[in-house]
Specification:
By secondary structure, the protein is an alpha+beta fold. The chain has helices at about 25-35, 35-55, 105-110, 140-150, 185-195, 200-205, 210-220, 240-245, 250-260, 280-290; strands at about 5-10, 15-20, 65-70, 75-80, 85-90, 115-120, 130-135, 155-165, 170-180, 225-230, 230, 265, 275. Strand 4 (about 75-80) and strand 5 (about 85-90) form a beta hairpin. It is globular, with a radius of gyration of 21 Å.
Length: about 290
C-alpha cells in the first residue's frame, strides 16, 4: 500500500486525528543513508511525525522542519516535510544498533535525553515560527507529545513507530490525536483510555490494517476529512548548490579557484554528489561582483 496520511475528527469534533503510513518513505531513507535498525527507527519516527505536522499546511511549498539532538550517539536528526507531501531527512550516525532486554530497539539510548526538540514552521511569513522544548525520553513520540503541549498548547497523544527485521523496514507510521479547545471531560477521558490501550501503530500497519480502519478502531464515530499522499523526495540540484556556493565569502571562493581542483558537494539528505569545475566557481565569484 502507498504511503499516505488520513485526517479525521471524532467525538463531536472535539478530537482531531491524523494517521500515517510511512513505510516506503522510511525504507527509502534507510537505503539512501545505509541505516542500521536503531538509526532508521529514530529517523523514521521523526520523519513520520514531521510529515503529519506538514499535512495541515495550506500551501504546497510551506514546510515543517524538526530537529532533534539529545547528545546521544545518533547526533542530530533532522526531517523536513512540505505541504505537497514531500519528505526528507538525515541522521548524524546511521550505523547504530542498540536493543533493550525485551528485544525492542533502544531508540532512547541512540537519541539521548539531554538535548532539545526544535520545530520550525515556515508558512511564508517574514519570520518562520520556531518552537523549542527539552527532550523527555528520547523515544520521539513522548518528545513530540511534550512539544505540542508546551510549545503549541495542544493536548496531544503521539504514537509513532518503525518495525524492522533482518531484511530492513517492515512497517512504519504514526497516529496523532489532539484535543480541540474546550473539549469535555468525557472526551479527555476517552482519549486517555485510547492512549492506555492502543497497540503500536507499526504493528497495526504490518498486520495490513487500513488507516481508516485504524482510526475507527479507536474512534468508532470518526468522520474522515481528507487523504493526503506523502513520499520521500529531495529537491536538491546542482543549480541550488551553485547558488549556495555564491553565498561564500569572496576569499573562500578565490581560494577554491586558486587550488584549481574544483569542488564537490554531497547532499546530506539524499547523498547525491555534485561536482563543480574551476570555471563554475569563477562564475559564482563573478556573480558576487555583479559581472
Amino acid at each position: 500500500m502507498k504511503d499516505e496520511i488520513v485526517i479525521a475528527q471524532a467525538l463531536n469534533k472535539q478530537v482531531r486525528i491524523h494517521a500515517a503510513r510511512t513505510t516506503e518513505m522510511v525504507r527509502r531513507a534507510r537505503e539512501l543513508h545505509d541505516c542500521y535498525p536503531t538509526s532508521i527507527a529514530a529517523l523514521g519516527r521523526v520523519m513520520s511525525v514531521t510529515a503529519i505536522m506538514a499535512s495541515d499546511l495550506k500551501n504546497p511549498y510551506e514546510s515543517v522542519t524538526s530537529i532533534i539532538n539529545g547528545h546521544g550517539p545518533a547526533g542530530t536528526i533532522l526531517a523536513q516535510a512540505q505541504g505537497n507531501g514531500d519528505v526528507r531527512g538525515f541522521i548524524g550516525d546511521p550505523h547504530l544498533y542498540f536493543s533493550r532486554e525485551d528485544g525492542h530497539l533502544d531508540v532512547s539510548k541512540a537519541v539521548g535525553t539531554s538535548g532539545s526538540l526544535t520545530v520550525v514552521r515556515d508558512t511564508g511569513l517574514k519570520e518562520p515560527f520556531t518552537g523549542v522544548t527539552d527532550l523527555q525520553t528520547g523515544e520521539i513520540g513522548d518528545d513530540f507529545t511534550y512539544y505540542f503541549a508546551i510549545s503549541e498548547q495542544i493536548p496531544s497523544v503521539v504514537g509513532v513507530g518503525v518495525l524492522c527485521d533482518q531484511e530492513g523496514v517492515k512497517a512504519a507510521g504514526g497516529l496523532i490525536y489532539q484535543l480541540m479547545p474546550n473539549a469535555s471531560e468525557e472526551a479527555i477521558a476517552f482519549c486517555e483510555n485510547v492512549a492506555a490501550t492502543q497497540k503500536p501503530v507499526s504493528t497495526l500497519i504490518d498486520e495490513g490494517l487500513d488507516l481508516e480502519e485504524m482510526i475507527k478502531m479507536y474512534f468508532p464515530d470518526a468522520e474522515i476529512l481528507d487523504h493526503k499522499d506523502i513520499r520521500w523526495h529531495c529537491d536538491c540540484s546542482k543549480e541550488k548548490f551553485l547558488t549556495s556556493l555564491s553565498t561564500l565569502s569572496e576569499e573562500d571562493l578565490q581560494e577554491m579557484i586558486d587550488d584549481n581542483k574544483g569542488a564537490e558537494i554531497t547532499c546530506q539528505y539524499c547523498s547525491s554528489t555534485y561536482t563543480f569545475t574551476t570555471e563554475e566557481l569563477q562564475g559564482a565569484l563573478n556573480r558576487k561582483h555583479g559581472i
